[in-house]
Amino acid sequence: MRQIVRVLTILREALREIFDEGSYTRFLRRTQMPSSPRAYAAYWEEREASHARKPRCC
Amino acid sequence: MNKTFSIFAWAAVACLGAVAIAVVALRRGEPINALWLVAAAACCYALGYRFYSRFISVKVLALDSRRATPAERLENGRDFLVTNKWVVFGHHFAAIAGPGPLVGPVLAVQFGYLPGTLWILAGAVFAGCVQDFVILVFSVRRDGKSLTEMAKEETGRVGGFVAYVAVIAILVILLGVCALIVVNALKSSPWGTFTIAMTIPIALLMGIYLRRIRPGKVMEVSLLGFILVLLAIFGGQWVSQTESVARIFSLSAPTLAILIIVYGFAASALPVWLLLAPRDYLSTFVKLGTIGLLAAGIVVLHPTLHMPALTRFVDGTGPVFAGKIFPFAFITIACGAISGFHSLIASGTTPKLIARETETRLVGYGAMMAESAVAIMAVIAACVLQPGVYFAINSPAGIVGQAPEAAAATISNWGFPVSAGEMQTLARAVGEQTLFNRTGGAPAFAVGMANIFSHTLGGQALMAIWYHFAIMFEALFILTVLDAGTRVARFMIQDALTHVYKPLGRTSWYPSILATSALVVGAWGYFLWQGVKDPLGGINSLWPLFGIANQLLATVALCVATTVIIKMHKTRYASITLLPLGWLVAVTYTAAWHKIFDASSRIGFLAQARSLEVGTPTATTARLIVNNRLDAAVTATLVVLVSLVLFESIVAWVGFVRGSRAVFLKESPFVRTRLATEEQ
Fold first, then answer.
1. Which CA distances in Å does B145 have to A15, B107, B192, B352?
2. What ipTM was reported for this prediction?
3. Does the pLDDT at position B569 exceed 50?
4. B511: phi then psi, degrees, rounded to nearest 5
5. For residue A54, is it within any domain?
6. Kind of pairing, strands B304-305 and B32-33?
7. Interface test with A, best of B74, B80, B85, B86 (most A CBs within 10 A)
8. What is the mean pLDDT of residues B622-646?
9. How far off is chain B from A2, nearest CA to CA, in Å?
């Protein structure tokens, strides 16, 4: 049972990373902002400023 | 006891793999079951991962779990972050798995299922996985530096410059080909066009929802977007059955090309959160789900492969693309076997997330194996079709004729029986007006996938829905590559232009955004337009060009990897990258030679230009001649540039081995990790 929970937790974490939810949570923690439209806008600005240029393969 | 069991277990895997490959390779004259391909692939991957990747990690790279990675040393909660290895695996796989492993293998099936399957398996285990793995390790040991930076530091300035030019060239050609595949899949298809058009307002809605209503809840909004896309698929059926609306969405190839060019420009110039990011999320959501569903469908249904092991087109006269197995099968299938583009991902985001050096084996080698498995699924999806149907879908009108009866007669004369009535019934079953001349690989893959899905779930009644689901799936993530690729190329050009005039490098300065977006879109739009106007369907010229460019980038990556291995004083193991490098040089240089100089007008660009010159001139003849000469010039330029890197690398290797050249390995210094002991 513990193994299944572990696998599901890792799967959820992988999806959170793939979908940038983990990255946004870390941004909120780092900037100590609550989640809001303003915080999300700031998050995207930071990503743009740091050239968030995740290439996608062919 | 455990060791004895392990030896017997691995011996059993090796025996099963050998039997499966023997069946795949030697069975002639009767169809085989797809499970033989699945078994052969699973055993090859298991053996490759267990033994070859372990050999590389222990003997060649000497991976050290005590050495702190950049994710630990430079952790900033943003780019550098210690991350669970399975999470990084998922992240890396989602980035490398694009449309390439689906389209390339489908096109290469014109030779039969055997050449593609063997190349996918051998190429992945001995070349592609190795390239991704070693580049990832070397980037991790250099603070997550990119391939271009590593090429500059380890092989010299020429290497860095060529890697940069090769990346831009690949992006431009890739985007042109991707757009052409979408155009060919959607032309005269009101259902498909409506569904894909709907993904734009859906993505905009998702962007606004994410920004204003539920900030950051990406998975939630992706699920919502997925439901809306499913509704758009059902809506598309209504559109195709309602004549007045269907007329609006029945678009010709040139009209679709113009719309995609306009869309590409908008996606590059609009704020990333509004259109690009939500579409990327939606595409990833659909991609991961569909790949899982297809794998399950193949195992549950275990269909029979109707395509023979080898077809008559091994002689180079194939209708899908011209040219013999060697070298063309090996440049047509890139992403499922080895893809230079992967080296950009392996030296991009991924190395900044790796917690321990030893985890690079799972992420670098393992994720490429997973991508290769996707390519095997594409081979199976194409081979479940009757060969006559496969060739009817994938052959351009310029080869088989425009009229259905003429096309069916030509294909039947090749020994692959098919009738116009049979194709009409199939087209009706999938909700299309016609399936003839739908080149590009996407429609053939969609018919194969719909075949597998409908036999697993829903029967013939759902065939049309599954077909359009598959088209939506392919078009969605091809368009995502288009969006993201245009933007990445724009950033790269802006980076270069910053040396000319500083404001041009600012990614928030609109004149620069508009100018560089127009430049990139204009470049790939040119190739797209060329493909749309090409009487041979475009794919015949452009896919090999893309394959050559992509494999030349892999050549640069393997040059860098070999240089680093020799600098590490591991020359006796340099063959792990030298052999794939030698193979790629042989393949790409031969392919480039044929594409430029071959006397056949279906293969050689210059020969085609000459045959157009002496033929009856039409309104487009002059442009077609220029296009062919341009394609020849692009191919030649890429080969010359990569030859410079190769020459520079060989001179350096000889110098290092003889001791006449000092060895400076640009690795970050060893720092002991503070993370807890690794769980084994």
1. 25, 35, 41, 9
2. 0.89
3. yes
4. -55, -40
5. no
6. antiparallel
7. B86
8. 92
9. 16
DSSP string, B433-486: S--TT--SSHHHHHHHHHHHHHHHTT-GGGHHHHHHHHHHHHHHHHHHHHHHHH
Residue B144 host element (H or E):
none
The pLDDT of residue B184: 87
Say yes or no for a CB contact (<8 Å) between B95 and A40: no
For chain B, positions 474-513, list CB contacts with chain A under 8 A.
Answer: 480-481, 484-485, 487-488, 491, 507-508
Looking at the complex, does the CB of residue A31 fall below 8 Å from at least one CB of chain B? no
Query: Across the interface, which of B90, B97, B488 has its CB nearest the CB of A17?
Result: B90
> Which chain A positions have a beta carbon within 8 Å of B83's beta carbon?
17
Query: For B216, which of A10, A13, A40 is closest by C-beta distance?
Result: A40
* Contact between chains at A55 and B345 (C-beta distance less than 8 A): yes
Please check the confidence at residue B642 and state whether its pLDDT lies above 70: yes
Asked if A30 has any chain B CB less than 8 Å from its own CB, the reply is: yes
**Per-residue pLDDT tens for B334-344?**
989 999 989 98
Calculate the alpha carbon distances from B221 to A46, B62, B285, B447, B466 in Å: 22, 44, 10, 29, 23
Is A8 within a domain? yes
Q: Would you call A9 an interface residue with chain B, using a CB distance cutoff of 8 Å?
A: no
B473-482, B606-615, B644-653: segment of lowest average pLDDT: B473-482
Q: For each of the domains in chain B, give its residue range(s) and CATH number, in order of start.
A: 2-188+251-658 (1.20.1740.10)
Contact with chain A for residue B318, Cβ under 8 A = no
d(CA B266, CA B143): 35
End-to-end CA distance of chain B: 20
Q: What's the gap in Å between the CA of B368 and the closest CA on chain A?
A: 12
CB B210 within 8 A of CB B275: no
- For residues B550-561, one letter each, b for 16 or more C-beta atoms within 10 angstroms of the residue's C-beta and e for the rest, the string is bbbbbbbbbbbb
Residue type, B680: Q
Closest-CA distance, A7 to chain B, in angstroms, reads 10
Write out pLDDT tens, residues B483-493: 878 888 888 88
Number of domains in chain A: 1
C-alpha distance from residue B631 to each of B169, B541, B608 (Å): 12, 8, 11
Q: What is the pLDDT of residues B130-154, one digit of tens each?
A: 999 999 999 999 999 988 889 988 8
Q: Assess B97–A contact: CB distance below 8 Å, yes or no.
A: yes
Residues of B in contact with A35 (CB under 8 A): 215-216
- A57: in domain: no
Residues 6 or more apart whose CB falls under 8 angstroms from that of B342 comprise: A57, B96, B128, B131, B132, B135, B335, B368
